[in-house]
Design a protein that fits this description.
GO molecular function: oxidoreductase activity
Largest sheet: 5 strands, parallel
Protein name: Putative 17 beta-hydroxysteroid dehydrogenase type 3
Order of helices and strands: HHEHEHEHEHEH
Structural class: alpha/beta
Strand content: 5-15%
Helix content: 55-70%
Mean pLDDT: 85
Pfam families: adh_short (PF00106)
CATH class of the largest domain: Alpha Beta
Main location: endoplasmic reticulum
Organism: Streblomastix strix
């Protein structure tokens, strides 16, 4: 009986700790949202001197929402995705929000050969004054070491890292030569902090992106 009580206490402590960590993760997400809503939204066009915003996974979800936000304030938008029909629809929606900007779509599969995919993407970005790079594309649900988990790893991290190697120096050069700021954004996840069974690869990739963003913010500053 005593052992049974001890087991219950241990499980209660584990679930309490899990609940606390989940609450902290939620607060980490909500507090910045509240700050933005209370304060005046930042004018990204003025801050970064105009130009283009490049968004991977910009044809759906968070990426699509961000594309429409920056279009509304007057930044040109490049959205990247796999579904050409969806890309064209989102591009049309963006132009309906602000007809004074330009849009560009790039159809690419980030799970392919990272070097080749990066080269093809960079060619299509040639000549654009990019001020914001948003590495948003990614997917989950590949827990076992299969071909799909490798595709997930390439999509979430490897190809983005190759793109980072090319685009980050451009933003630095933009700052040095034109005195215009630039920004790189990453979509991380609470699962990068608190993992769950079945999300091992996804959690690892999101943890990497979160730490990369934090370290880059400190180093670039």
């Amino acid at each position: 009986m005593q052992a049974y009580v001890i087991v219950l206490i241990v499980f209660a402590c584990i679930f309490s700790l899990w609940g606390l960590l989940s609450l902290l993760s939620l607060l980490i997400y909500l507090i910045p949202q509240l700050v933005v809503r209370i304060l005046n939204p930042l004018d990204l066009k003025k801050r970064y001197g105009g130009g283009w915003c490049f968004i991977t996974g910009g044809n759906s979800g968070i990426g699509e929402s961000f594309a429409k936000k920056v279009a509304k304030i007057g930044l040109n938008v490049v959205i990247l995705g796999q579904n050409e029909e969806r890309l064209n629809k989102v591009a049309a929606d963006i132009l309906s929000i602000n007809q004074n900007i330009e849009t560009k779509t790039i159809k690419a599969d980030l799970s392919g050969n990272p070097e080749q995919v990066t080269e093809e993407i960079v060619q299509q970005l040639s000549g654009l004054d990019i001020c914001i790079v948003y590495f948003n594309a990614g997917f989950g649900n590949a827990a076992q070491p299969t071909k799909k988990s490798l595709d997930q790893f390439n999509t979430n991290i490897v190809t983005h890292q190759h793109l980072f190697q090319v685009l980050y120096p451009r933003l630095v050069n933009r700052q040095l030569t034109a005195k215009k700021r630039g920004a790189i954004l990453f979509t991380s996840s609470g699962l990068g902090i608190i993992t769950t069974p079945g999300s091992v690869v996804y959690s690892a990739t999101k943890s990497y992106l979160g730490h990369l963003g934090e370290c880059l913010a400190s180093e670039a500053h």
